[in-house]
Amino acid sequence: MKVSVVKETAPGERRVALVPEAAAKLRSAGLEVLVQSGAGDGAWHTDDSYAEAGATVVSRADALAADVVLMVGKPDTAAVSVLRPGQVVIGLLAPLTDPDLTAALAAAGVTAVSMDMIPRTLPRAQPMDALSSQANIAGYKAALLGATQFGRFFPLLITAAGTARPAKVLVLGTGVAGLQAIGTARRLGALVSAYDVRPETRTEAESVGATFIELTSVGPASGEGGYARALTEDERTAQQEELAGHIARHDVVITTAQVPGRRPPLLVTEDALKSMTPGSVVVDMGASILGGNVAGSVPGETVLTENGVAIVGASGLPSSMAAAASAMYARNISSLLLYLISDGALALNREDELQSGVIITSGGAIVHPALTDAASKPQPAPADQPSDQPPDQPDEGATRAVPGSSR
Ligand code: NAD
């Protein structure tokens, strides 16, 4: 069976789905591994290093013709147009936010396997959990960006030239990325506080060295499957106002809050930014074209407010550490691929909980329950829509289900 790796085409994407070590592992499992020439360049893996690992370096057309095509992100339109029925495509396909791609893959007759739909709490799925591996990298890098943008020290420094007090860092959202950001900022010597709308994250945040902040104006907002639910408009306003007081007392704020299938909730408002001291830094890991956790953040750019606060629009962080991110992703995707294979051939079985969690299209149809349920449900009336966004914005995820909610 031929398994291929294609070069990523998304702008700025440097990661590659398999590193040579993972290619060798798949070879030793009896698979023929094809690698598009140049696929590993962004992560510093040459064509020669793949060839030494037993892979065959091929053209993009040949890579796209393999039985199983591995990628980090999504196939572009040109790639989808050459896929044939029965081929398997595995990547972070984002079906909750890109239903058009899911529909196109179904129409192409492709079996699409989405790494971001892995039921993360299944113990056997943990080596395949690419959302966690990439979030870990993003959280680490977000803390480093905060430290390098900040014009003072993170640690307490006592020198002959004077004493520098430790920076006060606030991490908003303590999922996988937030916990890594806390740990990294702590290791750099900062005093770290943290907040999440799911109170059960308190123990984890404290265990990596943060002081957990509780808000009195917003109750717990744990949703399905271990994720947060979207807040109501009243809760959102109360949260923003109470958080503003805490934000004003910190030098560096790192935001990582997400609600699956929706635009990120706004946590740091313009008023909160105005209350910060000049020279403060806000790193918005949720920055996206749909908006982020921070008012005025621009993905990929650092914006300076009138009162001298730097807002770092920290998008694409895993790609900025392409070597580490690719190594981890390669382990995730090869674990999943080997799970889907028996005796050198694909053994797809949607009765299996893990497989039914990740297979989104098959036999010309969309088959994932979270996607078919969402499509069959009527759109909620505007007044019923959870309002974590302004009314003039489409609610991206109003009818979408939560990944892994079947777990
Ligand atoms: P995520 O990226 O979806 O969200 C990041 C954090 O933002 C979450 O902690 C969420 O509660 C928080 N958040 C959302 N809205 C907020 C708001 N308005 N204000 C403040 N915080 C807000 O989360 P994730 O890192 O993907 O983790 C999601 C869940 O999956 C967690 O419960 C995590 O423990 C769980 N998980 C479990 C496993 C496992 O069991 N092996 C592996 C990975 C993750």
List keywords for this structure.
407 residues, alpha/beta, Rossmann fold, 14 helices, 19 strands, binds nicotinamide-adenine-dinucleotide
Walkthrough of the structure:
- The protein has 407 residues and is of the alpha/beta class.
- The chain folds into 2 domains: 2-117 and 325-374, NAD(P)-binding Rossmann-like Domain (Rossmann fold); 137-315 and 390-401, 3-Layer(aba) Sandwich (Rossmann fold).
- 32% of the residues lie in helices and 16% in strands.
- It has 14 helices and 19 strands.
- It has helices at 20-28, 47-52, 60-64, 77-82, 99-107, 130-149, 176-187, 202-207, 233-248, 270-274, 317-320, 322-339, 353-358, 369-376; strands at residues 2-5, 32-36, 56-58, 68-70, 88-91, 111-114, 157-159, 162-164, 168-172, 191-195, 211-212, 252-255, 281-284, 302-304, 310-313, 341-342, 345-346, 359-362, 365-366.
- An 8-stranded mixed sheet has the order 3-2-1-4-5-6-18-19, with helices on both faces.
- The longest helix has 20 residues, at 130-149.
- The chain binds nicotinamide-adenine-dinucleotide.
- The site of nicotinamide-adenine-dinucleotide (NAD) has 29 residues, from α6 and α7.
- Nicotinamide-adenine-dinucleotide (NAD) is lined by residues 120-121, 126, 129, 131-132, 135, 172-178, 196-198, 201, 226-228, 231, 256-260, 265, 267.
Secondary structure blueprint with pairings:
Elements: E1 2-5, H1 20-28, E2 32-36, H2 47-52, E3 56-58, H3 60-64, E4 68-70, H4 77-82, E5 88-91, H5 99-107, E6 111-114, H6 130-149, E7 157-159, E8 162-164, E9 168-172, H7 176-187, E10 191-195, H8 202-207, E11 211-212, H9 233-248, E12 252-255, H10 270-274, E13 281-284, E14 302-304, E15 310-313, H11 317-320, H12 322-339, E16 341-342, E17 345-346, H13 353-358, E18 359-362, E19 365-366, H14 369-376
Parallel strand pairs: 1-2, 1-4, 2-3, 4-5, 5-6, 9-10, 9-12, 10-11, 12-13, 13-15
Antiparallel strand pairs: 6-18, 7-8, 14-15, 16-17, 18-19
Helix pairs in contact: 1-12, 6-7, 6-12
The protein binds nicotinamide-adenine-dinucleotide.
